[in-house]
Design brief:
- The protein is of the alpha/beta class.
- The chain has ten helices and seven strands.
- Helix 9 runs antiparallel to helix 10.
- The longest helix has 16 residues.
- 39% of the residues are buried.
- The C terminus is likely disordered.
């Protein structure tokens, strides 16, 4: 299935990479995001002196928050040089630009790891999960958060058109837009224990947040530009979007799943142990 690659799949390749830093900053100003992030970080059960790994660290604000709250140290990894540089600029001491499919960390070298809104964008989520399991020591914790776009709802008057546009978002605008509800099964198949799933639903009534932060008003024309929706239907979508806003009927929602687990004490060592990689502390 062909897809419209999302900008977060290749930040450095975008025309203005710094714009994607600003996107993350805007999201962090929406109350929903800091609230679920705090819970996600709590699922790691970090203690002072622990070393944790964040995969897909973005601006580094989450890593800094975890360090302040828990007393743990965080190694921040992001595939984008732009984001790794932003992490360092904001005070994250250990920030690496690296491919999450092949983490440059030793096996069993961190107490826990998390990825927030990352698996939906990567090439091969199972490989990233396997790498995160590899670097977390037995008894350590993993936590993931992603929206599941199979759960979307949009309050405009033409629900058939709404579903067409939301389906495009789920199936084409993201590499793995409907993976989140399958993450628990993915971890169970790898022998992890204490698996838990929590749901947090984002409900957006503010059209400025929906459009300026999420770009929802543009989704239909993006679909049309890629041959997935007729142009007249895209035009109609915008009219109905604006009509719902004017009449106070606008609503968009999507559910995020927070999935956590523990690496068992008898976890097998991965075959691809990168024993020559730099220790976490270097």
């Amino acid at each position: 299935m062909d897809r419209t690659e999302h900008g977060f799949t290749a930040v450095d390749a975008q025309a203005a990479p710094i714009a994607w830093v600003r996107v993350l900053d805007r999201l962090d100003r929406e109350p929903f995001y800091p609230a679920y992030k705090e819970r996600l970080h709590g699922l790691l059960q970090a203690r002072p002196g622990d070393v944790l790994l964040e995969v897909g660290a973005g601006t580094g604000e989450a890593a800094l928050s975890v360090q302040r709250r828990s007393g743990a140290a965080v190694v921040a990894v992001d595939s984008a040089v732009t984001m790794a540089g932003e992490c360092r600029a904001r005070g994250v001491e250990r920030a690496l630009a690296a491919d999450a499919h092949q983490l440059p960390l030793q096996t069993n070298s961190v107490a826990g790891a998390w990825a927030d809104r990352v698996l939906q964008h990567v090439r091969a989520p199972t490989e990233v999960v396997d790498e995160m399991i590899r670097v977390v020591r037995p008894g350590g914790r993993l936590a993931f958060a992603d929206p599941d776009y199979d759960t979307q709802a949009l309050g405009i008057s033409d629900q058939d058109l709404a579903r067409s546009v939301l389906r495009y978002r789920a199936d084409h605008m993201l590499r793995h837009g409907t993976l989140a509800h399958q993450q628990a099964g993915l971890l169970a198949s790898r022998g992890l224990v204490d698996i838990a799933v929590e749901a947090r639903t984002l409900v957006v009534r503010d059209p400025e947040a929906a459009d300026q932060v999420m770009g929802l008003r543009t989704w239909a024309h993006t679909a049309a530009a890629h041959g997935r929706l007729a142009t007249d239907l895209a035009d109609r979508f915008v009219v109905l979007f604006d009509e719902a806003v004017a009449q106070g009927r606008f609503l968009y929602s999507v559910t995020f799943f927070l999935t956590s687990a523990t690496v068992p004490n008898a976890a097998p060592t991965a075959d691809n142990d990168r024993s020559t990689s730099a220790p976490v502390g270097e």
